[in-house]
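Good day; I would like, with your permission, to put a structural problem before you. A protein sequence and the structure tokens that stand for its backbone fold form the material at issue. The record follows directly beneath this note:
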Amino acid sequence: MNTIKVDFSNTVGAIKPMNAVNNGPKSKAAVQTRGNFESYKEARFPYARTHDSDDSTAYGGPHVVDIYRVFPDFDADPELPESYDFFLTDRYLQNIMDAGTKVFYRLGQTIEHAPKKYYIHPPKDFKKWAVICEHIIRHYNEGWADGFHHNIEYWEIWNEPDLQQDNNSPTWSGTKEQFFDLYEITANHLKGLFPNLKIGGPAAVGARQYMMEFINEMKKRNVPLDFFSWHEYNCKVETVVDRVNFVRSMLDEAGYEKTESILNEWAYIKGWGKSFVYSLRAINGIKGASYVTGVMAACQYAPLDMLMYYDLSPGAIFNGVFELLSQEPLKTYYSLYWFANLADLGNAVSVESCENVYCVAATDGAHHGILLTHYNDDDAAEPKKVELSWNEMKGKYKITVYRTDAGNDAAVITEMIVNGAESAEWHATLKLYDVCYVDIAPIE
């Protein structure tokens, strides 16, 4: 028997935004009525990053978010409102916020996979590019150019400047030194004007050498770094946690102890070659849901400030949350939804788990929740018999256990009433990739 112990009397900090995402909901069209707005809203995603939004016509692509979309003529005057085209981006951001999700705005360009690149080149004038970014912020936070007061806090400079594919980058055609210059100029300009906002980046691919060079160079140049964003596509939870620890130690050693570490692109990927199609199938099924649950659970207790799942764009091949044709929830949706339940409770509590069972739990002092999964990248791994026990059960409680597996979505598998016990337990056999949520609600 494998034992999992949850101590609701031992809080270990707030539940962190491990269930943030990339991109927003799809509203229903006038004729084509598919949409996921209500399901998106019910999931209570804390943040949505606006990267690759330009690829989706559902959001207004190719006329949203990217600098060269919002400011289409780089030779225009950045001080004039008529130089900007905010219309569709306004609608897109409003849709995200109407769903109760905060915007995490990526300043830069959508990835370009085509052989010819149009917009991922270094700007002709780095300072002017920074001034354009300034006015985008003013439009959304200060009402400039018939704008808004959205109070968008996170502003990310560029995306994956270190990505190389056959010596032909789809994200940054310039040199490493050119990007360092662009980042320095933009970060200093924006932070000088908006000291209360969080300015960061660069959404690095995740190569250790580049990340170290970027961080050390920014420190050498005395550049502010409110958050460091980076990416990690993997199939092993432990590998993700190892990278989380490495990034935190790297930031601390460079003197960026207060800089947030944000993993803002991640999903199950076994490999980019022969295993890629297998990976996409996993993303859209129960294995992907289990992996997402395991990573969220492990990273809640690791030195990471935010996770942002990639990607919720309608039709995106990495979208394991909403089905392509119907926009109905897939299995990973329920894992993210249940993590939001933990966030609503507020306080994470200590957990002792066992090998390949990942668990996270939370409490508000009276109402408790536990999210767990049996994950192993080996598809032939055997089921696990587990004993889940917890304390702080004085009074009368209703315990409901939900499970998502290959054949069920958030199905109720156990309901029981506990009255007057100081502790309780649940025995179960977890099949590989089972995801379970235990709701422990007080009864008045």
Observations:
- The radius of gyration is 22 Å.
- The chain is about 30% helix and 25% strand.
- The first strand starts at residue 2 and ends at 14.
